[in-house]
C-alpha cells in the first residue's frame, strides 16, 4: 500500500505491530535486530529527499539494463520485454505517488540486523510486522532503495555501525487511502511450483487467486 494518509498511528498500534515482529522465528533466538521508528516531521523530510534520489538511481539502473527489476524469472511464460516495460511503467507511477507524498507518511520503520545470512532472520520479522499492520488497518510497503544512501541513513539515525548493524529495509506505514485487494497479476502456483523434483508437475492447478478479495472478505 503506497497511498497513505497522514493520520498518525497511535503508539499502542505501533507497539502491537512491533510486538508481532519480535515474535518472528530467528536462528538460535539470537534476535539480532533493531527497529527505529521515525515520526519526526523534520527527519521524514530529510529522508524524503534521499528517497527520491535513491529511486532515481534505481530507475537509471533499469534504463541501462541493470538491477533486479530488469527481467522476469528465467523460463517465465510470456516474458515479453515490451510487456514487462509497461508493467514497470505502471509500477513507477504507483511509486511516484509515495515519493511525491513522502513528507505525508506518518511513520517510517527502519529495520537493522547484524550478520543476517541473506535476510534469513530479519525478513520473517519484517513480514510479521506488515501482516500485523494489515490486521490493524495500517497499510505499508517495504523498500530497500535507501540502501543507496546507507551512510546518510546511519548518520541521521545515529546507528552504531561499529557494532556491525546494517540497514535491511525501510517500511513506510500509514492508514490507506485506497482499498486492499489480492494481487491478481501473479503467475499461478502450478507454473512456479514443482513436486518431488524441479520441473515435475505440482499436482494441482490454481488458475485464479484462492484468497478472497477485499469486497468478499468478512
Describe the overall structure.
Helices cover 37% and strands 12% of the residues. It has helices at residues 11-22, 41-63, 81-100, 122-135, 150-157, 189-192; strands at 33-38, 107-113, 139-143, 166-174. A four-stranded antiparallel β-sheet has the order 1-2-4-3, sandwiched between helices. α1 packs antiparallel against α4 (122-135). It starts with 10 loop residues before the first helix and ends in a 26-residue tail after the last helix. 19% of the residues are buried. The model has no long low-confidence stretch (mean pLDDT 85).
For the sheet with most strands, the description reads:
4 strands, antiparallel
Q: How would you name the oligomeric state of the polypeptide chains in this document?
A: single chain
Task: Report the sheet-strand fraction.
Answer: 5-15%
Question: Which term fits the overall shape?
Answer: globular
Order of helices and strands: HEHHEHEHEH
Strand order of the largest sheet: 1-2-4-3
Task: Give the end-to-end Cα distance, rounded to a whole number of Å.
Answer: 20 Å
Question: Based on helices, strands and strand pairing, what is the structural class?
Answer: alpha+beta
- Count the E strands: 4
Mean pLDDT: 85
Number of helices: 6
- Low-pLDDT parts are none
Helix content: 25-40%
In angstroms, what is the radius of gyration?
19 Å
Amino acid at each position: 500500500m503506497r497511498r497513505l494518509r497522514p493520520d498518525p498511528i497511535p503508539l499502542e498500534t505501533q507497539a502491537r505491530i512491533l510486538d508481532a515482529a519480535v515474535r518472528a522465528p530467528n536462528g538460535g533466538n539470537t534476535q539480532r535486530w533493531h527497529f527505529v521508528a521515525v515520526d519526526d516531521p523534520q527527519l521524514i523530510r530529510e529522508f524524503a529527499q534521499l528517497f527520491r534520489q535513491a529511486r532515481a538511481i534505481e530507475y537509471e539502473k533499469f534504463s541501462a539494463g541493470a538491477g533486479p527489476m530488469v527481467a522476469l524469472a528465467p523460463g517465465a511464460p510470456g516474458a515479453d520485454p515490451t510487456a514487462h516495460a509497461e508493467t514497470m511503467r505502471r509500477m513507477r507511477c504507483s511509486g511516484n505517488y509515495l515519493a511525491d507524498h513522502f513528507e505525508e507518511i506518518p511513520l517510517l520503520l527502519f529495520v537493522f540486523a547484524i550478520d543476517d545470512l541473506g535476510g534469513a532472520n530479519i525478513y520473517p520479522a519484517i513480514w510479521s510486522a506488515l501482516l500485523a499492520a494489515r490486521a490493524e488497518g495500517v497499510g505499508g510497503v517495504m523498500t530497500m532503495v535507501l540502501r543507496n544512501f546507507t551512510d546518510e541513513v546511519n548518520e541521521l539515525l545515529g546507528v552504531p555501525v561499529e557494532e556491525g548493524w546494517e540497514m535491511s529495509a525501510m517500511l513506510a506505514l500509514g492508514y490507506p487511502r485506497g482499498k486492499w485487494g489480492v494481487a491478481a497479476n501473479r503467475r499461478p502456483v502450478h507454473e512456479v511450483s514443482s513436486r518431488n523434483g524441479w520441473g515435475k508437475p505440482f499436482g494441482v492447478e490454481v488458475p485464479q487467486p484462492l484468497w478472497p478479495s477485499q469486497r468478499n472478505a468478512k
